[in-house]
Amino acid sequence: MKTSRKAGPGGTLRATLMNAARARAMTLAAAAFLIAPPASAQQVSDFYRGRNLTIVVGSDAGSGYDAYARLVGRHIAKHIPGNPVVIVQNQPGAGSITMANALSNSAAKDGATIGAPQSSVAFERLLHLLSPGGKTANFDATKLNWLGTVAQDTFVVLGWHKSKVRTTDEMLTKEFVIGTSGPNTDGSLIVAIMNRLLGTSIKLITGYKGTAAQLLALERGEIDGSSMAYATVSTLRPNLHEAKEISVILQIGRARHADLKSVPLLAELIKDAGDRKAVELIFDKYQMGRPFFAPTGVPADRVALLRAAFDASMKDPELIAEAAKLKLEMDPLTGAQVQALVDAQYAAPEATVRRARVLLGTEK
Question: Looking at the whole model, is its pTM more than 0.90?
Fold first, then answer.
């Protein structure tokens, strides 16, 4: 279930994140010591006794993000002193920006409410996917308290078994119709970059409400293919892949997925080194996968408690067994590792960031 993801000749991505994460964790620990109000360990642990812990999902109910949030919600309470009642709510909108804005600017900063956003939410201020200058994001992603991620994503481009495009070579030479939810979703961005850098002739049909609707459109013959997280395909419709009714044409991530060793990565098809670095910057968010965060301003001791509870949940045999039963992939990162990934993205060279925006059409 757990796969190794390498960052290339320079070593593993996980090792890089671990080194950066250690430094960030030391900073967090120092902050907790210096700025947290005087409180005994017992007072910190008692905070959640008799309270609710609300997980707000920035996606629709029934989506892949929702499935992961509810999985964590069913198990995390037993790893939190006080054993709070966990409530999962959905607040979709603007690629999870609506939810992240609400938690950052309206929710209490006490640790009783945490978010489960889409991975792109962290990079709106960097890549400006939803608004000029990323101004819709009324929060600083580097200052959110990232608690961890359950799984790191690999996105894929799919072809229906009856369509004229079922291989990478066919995709590069034939017209291909792909369906997505909206113009700024991952599938649409992947199509735009492939058309721009690979010279593909992919037509885009938007408006499908979620990945389940896209898979249904494939079966009906409305579209030739789609692009979504590989874990979502495995979760929502595993029978399609097992029966070879869909073919995985391309994958997007840092390394080839263990199940897809023969399928090329998008970055492998891009010849220009500068473009390749820009594309990696755009899609490195997939390493965040299915993240969770507490808003800026939550006391550091409660952040540490939530991070510890999240880490314990990722090792919980009952959660792991349920994830396997639901066909939800697990490849977790700690909160410090996710925080380090976000920091690294915002520290990327300006030339790479600018090229990424050009490729996305968001550079003004």
Answer: no
